[in-house]
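Example 3.2
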Amino acid sequence: MNRTPRGLMTALAAMALVWASALVSPAPASAATTTYYASPGGTGTGCTSSAPCSISQVKTAVRQNQSSASPTDVVVVLAGGRYELSSPLSFTAADGGRTTTTVRWTAAPGATPVLTGSTPVTGWSSHDSAKNIWVASTPVGLDTRDLFVNGVASPRASVTIARSDIQMTATGFNIRNSALNYLSNLPQKNRLELRSIGHFTDRYSPVSTINGTTATMTQPAWNNNLWGYDTMQAPIFGGHGLSIENSLSFISQPGHWYIDPSAGRLYLKPANGVNPSSLDVQLPRLERLIDISGSYSSPVRNLSFEGLQFSGTSWLAPSGPNGYAVQQTGAYLAGSYSYYPSDAITSCSQGCAAFERARTTWNQSPAAVQVSAATGVSFIGNKFVNLGQTALGIGNDANAHASGVGLGASNIDVVGNVFTQLGGGAVVAGGIRADAHHPSDPAMTNSDILVQANTVTKTSFTYRENSGFLSTYVDNARILQNEVFDLPYDAIDIGFGWGMNDAGGSRDYVDRGYYQYNPMYSTPTTFRNNVVANNMVHDTKRIFSDGGGIYSLSASPGTVIRENYMYNLRNTVGLYLDEGSRYITATNNVIRDSSPWVFANTGGTRNTKDNTVDNTWHMGGAVQGDFSTATNNRITNDHPVTGSTWPAAAQTIICNAGVPAQYRTPLNAPGCATQGGTQIVGGSSGRCMEVPGSSTSNGAQTQLWDCTGGTSQSWTYTANKQLVVYGNKCLDASGQGTSNGTAAVIWDCNGQTNQQWNLNTNGTITGVQSGLCLDASGQGTANGTKIHLWACHGGTNQQWARR
């Protein structure tokens, strides 16, 4: 049984699976349509509604249809339930449509088919009752970097250490803090990993051995984590944290887990008093789910996936000898370099010519669902949930595709999907190597990629430097009407290459020595004609201060960033024009609480020029970078806003930003006050949170009552995380209380943290000040049940839906 938490299940199920013809590219149509049916237990061969097929058999039926003399349009209808894949599904040109036919894989009406690479873990027994650690059997040899418990990513067992606790060397590290001497006595020391979260990187490096106070690290991962920028030993501005992960001995917090592949044992520490047999514990078995790839001469054509859920993967390469020597947004180093400096730990901790030489060899992280050498492929109204890496990779370099064929993606639509609980980002479109920016074959060009009306939240928990959306070298990428929030790093990144691959190159990279080994191009790249518009970006930069809410790299003629709304960015950069950004127009954007609100990285010889930032409304923040005739960067029609009220023109942009109505879910923020309030409905009661008697008095405690739609039940969630009723009263933790039983009352809005609330994807509402959950007291469900704060425990009386 799938025990996805009610709040998350409700949020995902609420998405309207509507074909919005105005949002997606038109597909060819033939005169006839053939419908095939599949189910999780299907054993039929005719693939009829009464005798459905298995997934593999229905693929065979589609191939036979499309290879026949008279192929038809095909619809594959998937019944609801779990399709536990034993291996990834591969779609080649034979599995898609022809130039005149289409193949649609779609959910049966009202159903949610789940294509998963995971298996439920059962048969739990106590391992250490004093520490509340439980154990269950798993297949011998099965490893994972990810575990999902009740639909939420669970953290690997780890211990946080100070950078002063160890001294990093060319071969590993020396323990300085004697409190860590126990590390040398741990079993399975070769499964330990050192993790460093820097200024814009999240690096993993495996341990080989620990003898006494000396740790020797696995190569080439260690070498590759020591050179370049924001390195393991010298993170920019000191970085954000250092930890050692992946030992049974490190399990200390609820949710911590450890897997022993050699013994086939999984260990888990649930919350106190919880038996894990009552939890839905999903163990990923596959590293990817879907491979869609043809060839440049025979691409996959006219294939769509609608209303499905993709879940249950874990990318294992970082556990191997290459570790995860990440450089930027999922691009990492792998393998050994003959020109690696012998003293790299000191001579190349902040860049050197040898490292610049290696830039053209970076790999891209593989996605769970991969699309390359394909045209006319669509993902509409799907759910990408519980995946241990980036969810969807479109036209990435060949090294990121299991097919061995990269790039070559055109007319790809990603519309109305939910992306949440992901180890990496939501979508990465485009490659980073030479054939991505200067294709040797025109068929390699990535073009016409639409990413629209998607909800992206709580991603990048394993590889935190991943942005929500990354589009690199793409001609005509359109990133429109998405809501991207609650991320550790950037929301939307476009471009790559820091200007080094642009026509005429970059003087900065001449000085760094890059062109001693790599070409300087005289022609433009394929990064052009992009549109980033009408997106709602908020609550990003949870970990990193580097980057921007919307961020660009390199020259992109014809590119426009317009009518986006950004807020709650932790006073980091709103609009970031990084190295080499040129010919970009940003217009009619609204930016709140960022500092600076715009930054052009024009320092030195970085070639960030010829950009226009026009008609921006912003509250607070400053301008950083050179906006002058020297760079031809211009700020025009600027609108600094004081106070807390946006003018009408800005309010219109705010109200038009984010996911349109047919794809909205309870995960989405209201977006603007004029959209009106929503009802907050108790998960166990089905009753609404209201102010009793329609009172407007400060201190009136909220309660449950039958939903009436009245103003006392109409709440608006604002950009400042307030829940507002009557337009001027805020939900308030009474007396700024932070203890169990604190009454949830209304009070004049004052901006204090006891009036700020987090709306979480698991259905809970937590106080920013206290961290406690909004709770129907005594697990009551009757009219008049008082609402207060209580320690979060996962009960349905602490789960709330908005409608």
